[in-house]
Design brief:
CATH topology: Amidase signature (AS) enzymes
Structural class: alpha/beta
CATH superfamily: Amidase signature (AS) domain
Shape: globular
Largest sheet: 6 strands, mixed
Oligomer: single chain
Helix content: 25-40%
Number of domains: 1
Strand order of the largest sheet: 1-3-2-6-8-7
CATH class: Alpha Beta
CATH architecture: Alpha-Beta Complex
Strand content: 5-15%
Mean pLDDT: 95
Length: 274
């Protein structure tokens, strides 16, 4: 590991910086994961963002490092740790949506997006807290309790992706996957001072994302992401191939993602309610 990257500062790296340091051989996935686990041990007792960690994460980090030493690339996200919102399927873990009745019912396969992230080389650190049924702008349920805002633990982190926003803001993960119908990524991103992105419906696959209102097709939930910089959001958008996800989800059009560099924002305006 590069001398400039001290263990207690690794949790502050953006996802884009992590990928650059990994590619340059200045950082190992093992060292980063260990730093993130230590960060979680220090701060999550006060924040309560995580609902489950994955025991396999260190072995997976070692495998990513070994592949890099052999000159093998696992993909554009090679060795990057990230977290997943509770309601998104990760093999071997529950998607409780904050309901006791859903405990002990682990998913037997990854959500399509999670499988794609793994194919691209990402490592799943664990899953994060949600409000019961995902239907609140704070994050609390009877199983895992209350998630607090990392900037002020007397405040809420927003919802329903509040656990993700809190974990990203607190440096427990460089990148998080959430879901959003009417603000469930964007509200907690605002509350926690991070960047949230809700893609156009079905540009990223929603298959394997559990919802409290299955069959409701008028305004559907959409998987998206949270990060500490816009650069990180763009990096993930560039890495994930919607055309490939269409193989596992026919609702995803088999079209390549648009290049953000080709978008002209000069005529756009920002609106708000005062």
């Amino acid at each position: 590991m590069c001398d400039a990257l001290q263990p207690m500062s690794l949790h502050e790296l953006s996802a884009s910086d992590v990928l650059r340091h990994l590619e340059a051989g200045e950082l190992t996935s093992r060292a980063l994961v260990e730093a993130l686990l230590e960060r979680r041990r220090q701060v999550d007792p006060h924040i309560n963002a995580f609902v489950v960690g994955r025991e396999a994460i260190l072995a997976e980090a070692d495998a990513a490092d070994a592949a890099r030493k052999r000159g093998e690339s696992l993909g554009p996200l090679h060795g990057l740790p990230l977290t997943i919102k509770d309601n998104v399927a990760v093999t071997g873990t529950d998607a409780t949506m904050g309901m006791r009745a859903r405990r002990g019912r682990p998913d037997d396969r990854d959500a399509v997006l999670v499988a794609e992230l793994r194919r691209l080389g990402a490592l799943v650190l664990g899953k994060t807290n949600v409000p019961q049924l995902l239907l609140a702008q704070e994050t609390e349920n009877a199983i895992f309790g209350v998630t607090n805002n990392p900037w002020n633990v007397a405040r809420v982190p927003g919802g329903s992706s509040g656990g993700e926003a809190a974990a990203v803001a607190a440096g427990m993960t460089p990148l998080g996957i959430g879901t959003d119908i009417g603000g469930s990524i964007r509200i907690p991103a605002h509350f926690c001072g991070v960047f949230g992105f809700k893609p156009t419906l079905d540009r990223w696959s929603n298959r394997g994302s559990h919802t409290a209102i299955p069959g409701q097709e008028v305004v559907r939930s959409q998987i998206g992401c949270l990060a500490r910089s816009a650069e990180d959001v763009i990096a993930l958008w560039r890495a994930v191939d919607p055309a490939r996800m269409s193989e596992g989800d026919p609702l995803v059009p088999p079209l390549a993602a648009a290049n953000p560099d080709d978008v002209d924002v000069s005529s756009l305006r920002v609106g708000w309610f005062d």
